[in-house]
Amino acid sequence: MNSTLTAVTQRIRERSAKPRGDYLARIAQLNNRQRGFERMGCANVAHAVAALPSNDKLRIVAEKAPHLGIVTAYNDMLSAHQPYEDYPAQIRAEAHRLGATAQVAGGVPAMCDGVTQGLPGMELSLFSRDTIAMSTAIALTHDVFDAALLLGICDKIVPGLLIGALHFGHLPCVFVPAGPMGTGISNSDKAKVRELYAQGKVGRDELLKSESAAYHGAGTCTFYGTANSNQMLLEAMGLHVPGSAFVHPHDDLRAALTREAVGSALDISGRLAGKPAKPIGQLVDERCIVNAMVALLATGGSTNHLIHWVAVARSAGLLIDWTDFSDLSAVVPLLARVYPNGSADVNQFQAAGGPGFVIRELLDAGLMHEDVLSVAGNGLRPYTFVPQAVGQGGEVVREPMPAASGDDGVVRTAAAPFSATGGLKLLDGNLGRAVIKVSAVPEDRHMVEAPCRIFTTQEAMLTAFKNGELERDVIVVVRFQGPHANGMPELHKLTPPLAVLQGKGFRVALVTDGRMSGASGKVPAAIHVSPEALAGGPLARLRDGDIVRVCALTGSLQALVGDAEWAARDVARLDPAEADVNAHGLGRELFAGLRRNVLSAEQGACTWL
Asked: Whole-angstrom Cα distance, residue 488 to residue 129?
């Protein structure tokens, strides 16, 4: 095992000893209860099974058959979640075949960040994660299930489902994906049209035509953003059936994998074979969390997970921080280049070897913990096999992963990586702590030093760009975008104009207490700056024209201002009119309590602690 991997895992274990111990004690207490239908009153049982067919009632009450709960994030607003429409019927049929029953316990909200990007709805996006977690808890609190199947894919949905499930840590759980949409136009062509539109060289009709050719059918968007990073991490954590992340929704193999997920849920419930259950709270230990962190770094995944997986870990009684990510990044090689870190999409990533290839390489290099529990059994090695066919009985057939990459421009071995280190860096300095994704940033842009121009909204920055005010070396600062201020929206509208400026030869970078996911791409972006400006963080001391240094080489985020002057400066305040806009309209009033109580980005932006 790599010594840094071992050291980081050990310090997480030691740091988390008290909360993890308390968490496992609560799981053990809940596991010692009678089965749900036996400990409930007769009226409670009658309500629970009232709408079920008579045969199911008989199985549950008289035969004491295993009972599965389904928590679904289905809606047809999200292309990725539209295929879930008929999953409950598939799951019930397979459960019946295996001698069990299944019931939809509840649904959770699922918003499409692609629809709300740059609009007021995006200010609810981060908080939707905890809303989903609470909705998951409401569904599972019926407390009659022997295991749960969790149906979700996209940005905040998977972290929310996982956080909610971990608060029912005594319950065995399996995540059920639905796969990516087919490949559309190339990501590079899409980016070019966006940049041309930002410069006013093409109109709205041309832009809409391009976007519609990229996002065109059922399934996950095919770039490697938060949604597809979710799927990579769930494979690395052993919470999917192996190899199920990136199989197309309409492939026959997809239906077989969904059926297999039902069997896996029943298997880890222990009810069919009379063996001990494998609850999710035991599966998700410090080794499992470290495996997820390593998988993220090795694939140049979404920076959102430096927030989400801190919250996920907390839900299992584990304490991680950005220093843990940074230390792992220093030893984890970059094994994949998928847009925005390369030209390939996730379908090409899957064809080249996908998650199984990456996990195999990391295990063999001693950069993942193999000796973990998973929904597929003991050890992570099953996740290095490829589901390639369906047998005569409808079962999934798996074959060993080929030794060589299917395309070494997309996926490489640990012996010949794209980079010796991961794609994420921690920045620290008198402007606070931030993260930067450098896997797609040209090496000559890993350090940018320039006068800053400060904005408090995306719209103000876009106006300045259109007016030609940013045609120079510049550090664009967009502050008052943190969780307390307005829910920490993603700032994707900034990417095309910044790319245009960089393309003209200017040295540019972004600094913000907001989010950018993985979409900053080739422009250096110091994001998630903590503490945030509204909480009095040092970003609020910055003034227009200050020289700012963003350096991924040394891990520095610095305003080049004398210490005495810096300490004497007043902290800028958000204009009350802007604060009022952030607080009202399109449901934002309902989230005021979450904005008040939310922890910092590095603390997972948790609202329940």
From this structure: 12
Q: pLDDT of 86-104, one tens digit each?
A: 999 999 999 999 999 999 9
pLDDT > 90? residue 503: yes
The number of CA neighbours under 13 Å toward the Cβ of 356 is 29
Helix and strand totals (H; E) in the chain: 25, 16
Straight-line distance from the first to the last Cα atom of the chain, in angstroms, rounded to the nearest whole number: 34
Amino acid 389: pLDDT: 80
Cα 515 from Cα 490, distance rounded (Å)? 4
The position carrying tokens 């940005």 is 155
Dist. CA 471–CA 492, nearest whole Å: 20
C-alpha pair distances (Å), 192 with each of 25, 78, 151, 174, 349: 54, 25, 35, 40, 22
Helix (H) or strand (E) holding 207: helix 204-214
Quick one: which of 298, 406, 389 has its CA closest to 352? 406
Give the DSSP letter of residue 34: P
Cis peptide before 417 (omega within 30 of 0): no
C-beta atoms surrounding 366 within 10 Å: 15
Give the span between the Cα atoms of 31 and 206, in whole angstroms. 58
Yes or no: say if 504 and 498 are a contact pair by the CB < 8 Å rule: no
Taking the CB of residue 556, how many other CB atoms lie within 10 A of it? 17
> What are the pLDDT digits (tens) for 308-336?
999 999 999 999 999 999 999 999 999 99
Structure tokens at 267: 């298997």
* Distance of alpha carbon 198 from the chain centroid: 28
Q: How far apart are CA 601 and CA 434, in angstroms?
A: 9
The predicted model scores a pTM of: 0.95
Output the six-digit token pair for 508: 């540019």
**In 100-198, beta strands by DSSP E:** 101-107, 147-151, 173-176
Question: Domain extents for the chain?
Answer: 3-32+65-182+217-400, 424-603
The C-alpha atoms of residue 405 and residue 357 are separated, in whole angstroms, by: 8
**Average pLDDT, stretch 416-436?**
93
Nearest to 102 by CA among 144, 46, 155, 163: 144
Instruction: Find out whether 470 and 558 touch, Cβ atoms under 8 Å.
Output: no
CATH of domain 424-603: 3.50.30.80
Which two structure tokens, joined as six digits, stand for 292? 């997820």
143-147, 273-277, 287-291, 433-437: lowest mean pLDDT where? 273-277
3-state secondary structure of 455: strand
Do the Cβ atoms of 160 and 136 come closer than 8 Å?
yes
The answer to whether residues 354 and 411 touch, using CB atoms and an 8 Å cutoff, is: yes
The β-bridge relationship of strands 101-107 and 508-512 is: unpaired
Please report the sign of the dihedral spanned by the C-alpha atoms of residue 139, residue 141, residue 269, residue 310: positive
Distances (CA, A) of 447 to 498, 509, 555: 16, 9, 10
Write out the two tokens for 590: 């309902």
Question: Which two tokens mark 50?
Answer: 């009232």
Mean pLDDT of 106-117: 93
Q: Cβ–Cβ contacts within 10 Å for residue 140, how many?
A: 22
Rounded CA-CA distance 521/518 in Å is: 7
Side by side, which strands form the sheet with 173-176?
101-107, 67-72, 147-151, 173-176
Alpha-carbon gap, residue 134 to 130, rounded angstroms? 6
Bridge-based pairing of strands 67-72 and 147-151 is parallel
